[in-house]
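URGENT: need a sanity check before tomorrow's submission.

F., can you look over the ABC transporter ATP-binding protein record below? I want to be sure the sequence and structure line up before it goes out.
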Amino acid sequence: MRGVGSASGGGPAVEIRGLVKRYGRATAVDGLTLTCARGEVTAILGPNGAGKTTTVEICEGFRRPDGGTVRVLGLDPADRALRPRLGVMLQAGGVPPAVRAGEWLRVVARFHADPLDPAALLDLLGLTGHARTPYRRLSGGQQQRLSLAAAVIGRPELVFLDEPTAGLDPQARHACWDVVTALRDAGVSVVLTTHQMDEAEKLSDQVVVIDHGRVVAEGTPEALTGAERQLRFRARPGLNLDELLCALPPGSAAKESPSGHYIIEGQVGPQLLATVTAWCATEGVTTEDLRIERRTLEDVFLELTGRELR
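Structure tokens as predicted:
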């Protein structure tokens, strides 16, 4: 994405210290502290109700905190001088229902001193054929892509993307990934919230996991997932893992999660693989989908936040 504005100045893109936000008796954000570096993609992950959207809305200036400090590009989020320097993509869209897609992008472009070419953005996101379609008649995925185009058309230094690929088909999802990658390559800072673990793992330089309004883990995707490999397989539910562990090398761990899906951790190599398959054969257990792989960001997320629905 040539010509997108890169971040200027020093210091982090976003700096939050002890952020608190309450809604009545409910505390949505509870002393949260995090930093988003300039020129990087920071993914904020968390279960529903963890406080991630509230945190981002405070950074965007749409809500005021009840405690703590927030600085965005070195300024208070309420500072009007930030407006032309930010790009914001909202889940709700905020587009008049009757406005045509191309017309809306041209209107947004007029609010910026040096906007990107609306026609080029429509083409990049596969919307050229829908330029004359009213917003209300666009599919959900097309509306998402139009909102993304509106967020970046002003050549922002920092872009906030809230669930940018929610409801998109694979082709549109990858097109949005290309836009995010191009933004980072141009030196733009990106803060995105997502429920897609593979998306966060692929796109982000830094991942922040929040739960109950606090940061519970942060780091690069590689640091969070670690270098350890796992042996995974499927079999009948309820295998006696204590007996299996007795056969495995010291320091090994085994768990069933979810039912009928098994994960073996430790010194994963040919010896451990042979031991597991031999034990299963002795016990008359038929294994399926036996494979060795490293931990994923989804594994880490579930370990930190639990598996129960919220």
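My own read: The mean pLDDT is 91. The chain has ten helices and 13 strands. If you see anything odd, call me.
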